[in-house]
Amino acid sequence: MPNTESAKKAMRSSERKRLRNRVYRSRARTYVKRARALIEAGRLEEARQAVRMAVSALDRAAQKGVIHQNNAARRKSRLMQMLNRASAQ
């Protein structure tokens, strides 16, 4: 437990930030999971829309500082690779 007033305040603010960040992280994970499932199921038209939503969620999470920009870029790249491979077949 925090001892000083500043440590107590830091704990309160970090908890608020954690809860706010969880929303963006969870949203990004959900959209990525949905996009992958659609790609693997072969429903490419729906998958394209889902990938678009996932890319948007990842960009937003990176912009907010919830995930690192390179992390978002890597995930977007892998999603696009999956979609392009499935489309080529």
At the fold tier of CATH, the topology name is Methane Monooxygenase Hydroxylase, Chain G, domain 1
Stretches where pLDDT is under 50 for at least 5 consecutive residues are none
**Count of DSSP strands:** 0
Distance between the termini: 57 Å
Secondary-structure-based class equals: mainly alpha
Question: What would a concise description of this structure say?
Answer:
By secondary structure, this protein is an all-alpha fold. It is 88% helix and 0% strand.
Walk me through what this model shows.
There is one protein chain. The chain has 89 residues and is an all-alpha fold. It has one domain: Ribosomal protein S20 (Methane Monooxygenase Hydroxylase, Chain G, domain 1, Up-down Bundle). The chain has helices spanning 5-41, 44-64, 69-88. The model has no long low-confidence stretch (mean pLDDT 97).
Task: Give the helices and strands, then pairings.
Elements: H1 5-41, H2 44-64, H3 69-88
Helix pairs in contact: 1-2, 1-3, 2-3
